[in-house]
UniProtKB/TrEMBL annotation:
Entry superkingdom: Bacteria
Membership in a protein family: Belongs to the OsmC/Ohr family.
NCBIfam families registered for this protein in UniProt: organ_hyd_perox
Protein name: Organic hydroperoxide resistance protein OhrB
Family annotation (Gene3D superfamilies): 2.20.25.10, 3.30.300.20
InterPro entries attached to this UniProt entry: KH_dom-like_a/b (IPR015946), OHR (IPR019953), OsmC/Ohr_fam (IPR003718), OsmC/Ohrsf (IPR036102)
BP GO terms, sorted: response to oxidative stress
Residues in coiled coil: none
Amino acid sequence: MSIQKSEVLYTAVATAENGRDGRVSTDDGQLDVVVNPPKEMGGSGAGTNPEQLFAAGYSACFQGALGVVARNEKADISGSTVTAHVGIGKNDDGFGIYVEITATIPNVDRATAQDLIEKAHQVCPYSKATRGNITVNLAVA
C-alpha cells in the first residue's frame, strides 16, 4: 500500500554523479561517498557500492520494524542485530537483486525469533516496497 505525498513525514534526498562509478551525497551533507562497482562486477572496489548502501538501509529499517513488533509482542530483543545480505546478478531482464535478512535475537527462543522476524517483514517499509519485486529470505542466526 502506498502513501500520498501529503502523508510523507520525511524525505531523504541523495544525488548520484556518474552512476555506479562516481559519488553519492545527501543534501544535508551527512553522507558523501565514492561509489565504485565491486571487483566481481569489473570495478576496482575502491568505494562503496549501491548494494552496500541498500543493505545498510534495509538492515536498519528492518531492525526498527523488529523493535515495533517486539514491543507489541512484549518480547525482549535487547542485544539483537539484523544483517542484510544484498546480492546482484544477471537475470532475464538484465540484473536483479536478492536479499537475505538474518536476525540474531539472543533473549528469545528460535521459534519466537522466527515469528518476530516474519511479523517484522510484514511491517518494514523496505520489505513492503520490495515485496513481489525481489526475493527476500528471512533467517534466524
